[in-house]
Amino acid sequence: MLRHLRGLLLGAMLVMALAACGPANNTDGNVTLQFAMNVGDEAAACGQSYPGVGSAGTEIAFTDLRFYVSNIRLINAQGQETPLELAQDGVWQYQNVALLDFEDGSGGCSEGGNTALNSVVKGTVPAGRYTGVAFDLGVPFALNHADVTAAPSPLNIQALWWNWQGGYKFMRVDMQTGAPAAAAAPTMDMSAPAPTIDMSATAPASQGEMQESGAPTPTAWFIHLGSTGCQSNDRTTPPTAPCSNPNLPSARLDGFTPGTSVIVADLASLLQGVPLDQNTPEPPGCMSGPQDPDCPALFPGFGLDLATGAAAGSQQLFRLQNP
DSSP states of 251-300 as a string? Predict the structure, then answer.
């Protein structure tokens, strides 16, 4: 009788221990990552204005809101990383790169945007229990210097490309500062077909001399993150060696639950130390060049060293939102 009671007690303790640890798996292997783009607690969107942003408390409105992610991994409780195999949907995902698009072509986003939106990344991992997620913001070198006119979607978007030498804009967030929400986009035509591009003016120079065509309005403030120091014979030739400044930020987020956690790109957090009331107008904002005077206040938010393009400290753009 005593032996029987001991067995029942041990069984009950085992059940309680398993319950405390949670279920063995929290995904069957089919994963949909939910992304959002916010300004603090508000969704970032075209056609709206957001006061009190940056170190000067500037009012902003958006004219573009897009970024690439790549090299996505899920992390278990032991810290082991498992790559997420992306679904090859022919639209938003190619190889290990996905595009998140939060502009809908309305309001000030009408110049270079479109109506299509995307806030998810879909893929598969072995069934298991995962408690973290990690990824890079941008396009890996192997895909970063393609011909945008021949590249598969989502690497075929002219507005997210500098040229063969410079590669892609990993993140494009265009803003009007102190402007109404429906402000028209700057006159810079970033959606023109490749044959009409001024190849001497659309990419960051290898030594960080940033030039883009057009004459943006004084209230424009752009974030165009991408690799610099990319060496090749000219801007129509891809580099054969990695760029000196990769500018490829990484994020690692703990407390993640597949299917319920939302990965939030919080622009208020990224911009909290940036004086958006100041910029050099040609071009306005940060184009990722080491000598760009608008970049030093911004790059720490990406967790990057502006001088080298390498990781330096913790990024403050991405966070998790859980129910």
Answer: EEEES--TTT-EEEEEHHHHTTT--TT---SSS-EE-S-TT-TTSTTTHH
Query: Per-residue pLDDT tens for 221-263?
Result: 999 999 999 999 999 999 999 999 999 999 999 999 999 999 9
Q: Which of 208, 215, 238 is nearest to 309 (CA)?
A: 208
pLDDT in tens, 25-40: 999 999 999 999 999 9
In a domain, 130, yes or no: yes
Instruction: Answer yes or no: is 61 within a domain.
Output: yes
- Residue 14 included in any domain: no
For the chain, how many structural domains are there in total?
Answer: 1
Q: How many CB atoms lie within 10 A of CB 250?
A: 16
Helix and strand element counts for the chain (H, E): 4, 18
pTM: 0.84
Q: Which domain covers residue 142, as residue numbers?
A: 33-321
Query: How many angstroms separate the CA atoms of 128 and 27, rounded?
Result: 6
DSSP assignment of 51-70 equals EEETTTTEEEEEEEEEEEEE
The dihedral region occupied by 95, where left means phi > 0, alpha psi between -120 and 50, and beta the remainder, is left
Closest to 137 measured CA to CA, from 292, 270, 273: 270
27 within some domain:
no
Phi, psi of 223 (to 5 degrees): -115, 105
213 neighbors 198 (Cβ within 8 angstroms)? yes
Q: Residue length, the chain? A: 323
Asked if 160 and 189 touch (Cβ cutoff 8 Å), the reply is no
